[in-house]
Amino acid sequence: MPGIEKLPLEEALEDSPQTRSLLGVFEEDTAAISNYCTQLYQAMQRIYDAQNELSAATHLTSRLLKEYDKQRFPLGGDDEVMSSTLQQFAKVIDELSSCHAVLSTQLADAMMFPITQFKERDLKELLTLKEVFQISSDDHDTAINRYSRLSKRRDNDKVRAEAVEDVYTSRKKQHQTMMHYFCSLNTLQYKKKTALLEPLLGYMQAQISFFKLGSENLSQQWEDFLGTIGTSVQNVRREMEEEVGQMQQTIQQMERSCDPLYAPCDPDPAHSPVCRNLTRKQGYLYIRNKTGLVSSSWERQYFFTQGGNLMQQGRAEVAGGLVTDLDNCSVMAVDSDDRRFCFQVTSFDGKKVVTLQAESRRDCEEWIATINNISKRIYLSENAEEVAARVNQTALEAVTPSPSFQQRHESMRPSSKGRSGRASSISSVGSEPSPALSALSFDALVAPETPIQFDIISPVSEENSGQNKAAAQAGRRSNPFGESGQDAPEDPEDSILHQLFIVRFLGSMEVRAAESADVISETMRQILAARAIHNIFRMTESHLLVTCDCLKLIDPQTQVTRLRFPLCSVVQSSSHQDNKRLFGFVLQTAGGREDSRAVCYIFESNNDGEKICDSIGLAKQIAFHSEIDRRALEKRKEQDKAKEKQAEELSKQKQIEKDLEEQSRLIAASSRPANPPAADGQVFLLSSSQSEDSDVGEEGKKRGSS
């Protein structure tokens, strides 16, 4: 017998579109078998009914022939020859009627019973299993959708545990139902052969036994042929029983081994570590589709990588469709308001962004690592996984801390050919080093063994430390991001420049040559290399506010200032030579000559790197001219104040001179002789003016004495 097509029980848990497509083929085959079996059953039923009718008709004929003697024919007389002949015919036909009755019984047992059992038991059992499988599949989809909609903000352990238990139960039920359904479909491929051959075999054997009395030679020929067919049927039945036993063992083994895989979360990270050397991956993911300006919906699709392309395929689809090109793309983990384990794939030109959600953190990291390997075109080489492992190991050694980058460079590439390889590895991450950078040592730009900060951390300065100490002494809570709360100077509302940009923080590290033109590009190279090697794709998104006084990093959700960089401390800023989305700036912290240090901050924007650098330069120019205008205004105010002070002194001096003149006049008036008394003893009365002059003279004397 030819090979039997089977459904793979091992792929029942994955439930891929290919498996569903193959399942659809088996279901179509089952429907065709059912239709054909129904028609064959109707035909055999007609044979059986006809045989019963023939047996009844033969018996009726025999009975009628026996009753010939009892008939009274008007024109016929007693004919003993005719009567005896008819009696012989009646005896033969009666024997034939008995044979037909036996044939009907044999047809009922050997022909109608097998096909009736196949039609009423096996096919109906398949229909019932199909309905149960459809119900379990719908329950699993409902459970996984409920689990995927768990809110990240309102994380409830009880709700999450219930969702995980629901997913576990529904997935286990779907897996078991699917395996039993697959087993029944595989068994049907054997049963359809026996269901067709056994009725025919019973029909032919009944016919042979019916004609065996008169045709020994014919029966001998048919017995040999039917014996061969009977042997084949027995072999098929025996093979079917062995296959059913193996499938039952496989089902039991799969149920035991796949029990940890029913849960959607990672069962044991140590037992199943993340594989970062993959160049091909497939599985179900959720994709976010925009349904409006601000609204979006999530759809569960089957995704797989094909060469350098990311494909998706629905359950009812025959082939997959292209989602995006993965060559030279960028991938990173992102935070979503309503979903967990999300990552984002951006095409090389930045025009297409795809947001996907994995089922677990391990699955999310494996997808990110796989897409990152494909973006480097490692899949084009032979033994892609070995090449990916070697590339990752080489890159890991390249960013391993050492006394200096130059020593590591010389130890890894002692020859001139090795130096060119080092330059090519640098250019693969960032731009090509300039002649100034090649002449300048790496240690002159970046301090050796400098740690890289991948999270937003406030720069440490004496001012911030003093503010934190003052806050601690006052019993107030200090800001972990280095802000001083009410003591920090707020930006003026009437600032000339206010520009807001969306940026993502990549990292920061301390540098030595703050004013060097290549320090930012070298910092970009080291931070990007460290992120690629350690598979750090998570970035913190913020809003960068550029004003004439400072640069602010603001949380887009809470509008809280994460970091504040005074504009006077920004030494320089520039964007990447090739990738314009990358930019950075060098911040010189406050302090003395020995205490001050320079830190380079690297960010990624949405194709606005040069624009942000131009905005920072414009802000510095505006701040410079504003400082000049402020100094001129202060100088003018000081001149006006000096003039007012001089005028006030002149007015005081004039008042003093006037007072002195008045005092001198009063003194002169008081120094006149008094009027002599009259001879006749009369007294001269002073006029009112004279009395007033005298009073004024007294006051003048007192004032002069004082």
Automatic annotation (TrEMBL):
GO terms for biological process: cellular response to growth factor stimulus; positive regulation of biosynthetic process; positive regulation of transport. It is a peripheral membrane protein. Residues 461-470 have a biased composition (Polar residues). It is found in: Cell projection, Ruffle; Cytoplasmic vesicle, Phagosome; Early endosome membrane; Nucleus. Residues 635-664 have a biased composition (Basic and acidic residues). Residues 501-634 form the PID domain. The keyword Transferase does not apply. Residues 413-434, 668-679 have a biased composition (Low complexity). One of its GO terms (cellular component) is nucleus. Keywords: Cell cycle, Cell projection, Coiled coil, Cytoplasm, Cytoplasmic vesicle, Endosome, Membrane, Nucleus, Phosphoprotein. The keyword Transferase does not apply. Residues 398-434, 459-492, 635-706 are annotated as: Disordered. Residues 278-376 form the PH domain. This is DCC-interacting protein 13-alpha.
